[in-house]
Specification:
Order of helices and strands: HEHEEHEEHEHEHEHHEHH
Number of helices: 10
Radius of gyration: 17 Å
Number of domains: 1
CATH superfamily: Metal-dependent hydrolases
């Protein structure tokens, strides 16, 4: 695809802007911005990256067990939205969580101790422990029975999953979805994560690309470049689905579209 055609598609797709479903932009809650000034700076960078809506996903459970409960997240989102409006930063923040895998997840949703994405009750972002493997099929099934769909964050950066792809189709068949990080596609997390991210995309296993931005040092948002790279390496159709259409569908609580297998899938 020519660069002119890429930009034509990009400009058409971004009339409404990107929706970022995974971002650590709330001040002082986890390992994202430490204060409101850092948070506003990150939000300005998100706007510059073509994003108009962000689902704020502070860490929940794991080492943050008992912290960042939904009431706190909602209050922080409300305060940040007021600051954005006062500073004329054209960005809308929605509440969510980056939830570490835990056997209590289903009951904790019911008691409002952890958060679904955009508070919609339809999708939940789940983070696996980095260096051990847990088969989460029973949890995915349990959630699906309540009409809640698991979205697995950055599997390409998981020590086991980036080497062992075969378990993922089983989870996806149970209504789970994969979200990869924009920076993984550009090599920010190393060659192994980069290869796995592109492989997952080519194999049609990825539903979402998100920033997982934390700050303006090593964890900047990179949605524009990820979108353009997917257009170049794969197709504008796939770029549109994983960067535009499916994130909007998640935000609105609609069904996620299946991404096609790329005809030249394999090693990048």
């Amino acid at each position: 695809m020519s660069s002119d055609k890429q930009m034509e598609d990009y400009n058409k797709d971004n009339q409404t802007g990107f929706v970022d479903i995974h971002c650590h932009c709330l001040p002082g809650l986890d390992d994202g911005p430490i204060n409101m000034n850092e948070s506003l700076a990150l939000c300005e960078a998100l706007v510059d990256d073509g994003i108009t809506v962000v689902i704020a996903t502070p860490h929940q459970l794991g080492q943050f067990d008992g912290c960042n409960e939904p009431a706190i997240v909602r209050q922080s989102v409300s305060e940040l939205n007021r600051k954005l409006e006062n500073n004329k930063i054209n960005l809308t923040i929605m509440p969510g969580g980056d939830v570490r895998i835990d056997e209590r997840i289903s009951s904790l949703i019911e008691t409002d101790k952890i958060q679904t994405l955009a508070d919609g009750g339809k999708y939940i972002l789940l983070e696996l422990p980095t260096r051990i493997f847990i088969d989460i099929e029973p949890l995915i099934i349990e959630l699906a029975e309540k009409d809640i769909h698991a979205v697995l964050s950055h599997p390409e950066r998981h020590f086991i999953l980036c080497r062992q792809y075969d378990v993922l189709p089983k989870w996806l068949s149970r209504s789970a979805h994969l979200q990869i990080t924009a920076g993984s596609l550009t090599g920010d997390f190393g060659p192994e994560a980069q290869k796995a991210a592109w492989d997952f995309l080519r194999m049609g296993m990825v539903s979402f690309v998100a920033t997982d931005a934390h700050n303006l040092r090593g964890r900047k948002p990179k949605m524009k470049i990820a979108y353009q790279e997917i257009c170049t390496q794969l197709s504008s159709e796939i770029a549109h689905m994983v960067c535009i259409e499916n994130p909007i569908r998640l935000l609105e609580g609609r069904q996620i579209l299946s991404v096609p297998l790329h005809r030249k899938h394999g090693v990048r």
